[in-house]
Structure formats: C-alpha cells, structure tokens
Design goal:
By secondary structure, the chain is mainly α. It has 6 helices and no strands. The longest helix has 24 residues.
Length: about 100
Amino acid sequence: MADLFFARGPAHACQDPELRKRVSVVLVGIAITTLTRSTKFASIVLEYIFADVLEDESASPAYGEALRALQAIRPLEAQKLARRFANQFWVSGLSEPVDTCN
C-alpha cells in the first residue's frame, strides 16, 4: 500500500519542489520519532528520497532555486534515517556493498 502511495499517489502528484521537500522532511520525522520500530516504513521513505526526481524545465529562477534546495535536503534526510536505523538496515540486508564503479 505504501509503495503505491509513493509511486503514483499524492507524493508524486505535485511538481512543486518546495512541497516535495516538506513531504520528505515530514516523512523522515515520522519515521525517526513515531514509527521507530518500522524498518519497512523507513526503507520506503529512504527509497522515496532517492527515487524522487524533478527536472529543471522551468525558466523561473525561483523554481530552480527551490529545486536546488530540494536536492540539498535529500542527503541530510537520508543521513537522519541512516543514523536512526543503521543496525536495522544492516541486518535487513541493505548492507551489501554497492559497486559504483561499474
């Protein structure tokens, strides 16, 4: 159900980078404070953060700046999740080394 929400639901319906930034911050906040035992929810939020892509198609400088702010907040939010769920991600199999050279 959550995968469907993140893949085609309201989280991807809007093209506003500021709104997507706020959604990411709120989801990470929920994952690390309220749902501290839900590794599945945290991994879905982490996937949402990394898979969320917006292209800079607008000629508006404000849109471009908001998009850069969204791109800057993503690693910070991923770090919050990684710090909180480090042991759970390691045990659940997300610890496999990633070969980025190939």
